[in-house]
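Section 3.1: Structural characterization of target chains.
Under the original work plan, the team committed to producing a structural model for every single-chain target entering the pipeline before any wet-lab resources were allocated. The record below documents one such target. The sequence was received from the expression subgroup and is listed exactly as submitted; it comprises 145 residues.
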Amino acid sequence: MASGHSEQQRRPLGHTRHPANRQPIAFIDEFGMAALKVPLDNHGRSHAIVEPHAYQRVLDSGLTGMWFTNSNGHGRRYVRTATAGSRGTLTLIARVIMDAGPGEVIRYANGDSLDLRVMNLLSMRGRAKRRDSQIASSRGNAPAS
């Protein structure tokens, strides 16, 4: 019989939900350019690819390097991160890199939404309502409560 307490999922000792050492891995891409593989999971099985300057732009906007994929509910997955100081708000990394505003959507030239190199990101007119880089900057620079 179940007690009045909800069951909690048990994790092995030493396992954390968000490990502190989820650092990007530098490499040279197929075009001979510097790039980073940013881990998207705790096991290193999935990575986003981004240029070092674009990764730094994301960090400078107040977001963390703790990136993950999130489905849009229609079979597509996108690289996002939680917005500091805004519980539950997710920010789309590609929109921050491209500084996309309302009325702009981001498309992926090669169809790979994990490839966040600027040459793969296309900003187009569309129905987007948010400006993720502004959300990130305003939340990231807000004092902790």
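The helical segments are 52-60, 93-98, 132-140.
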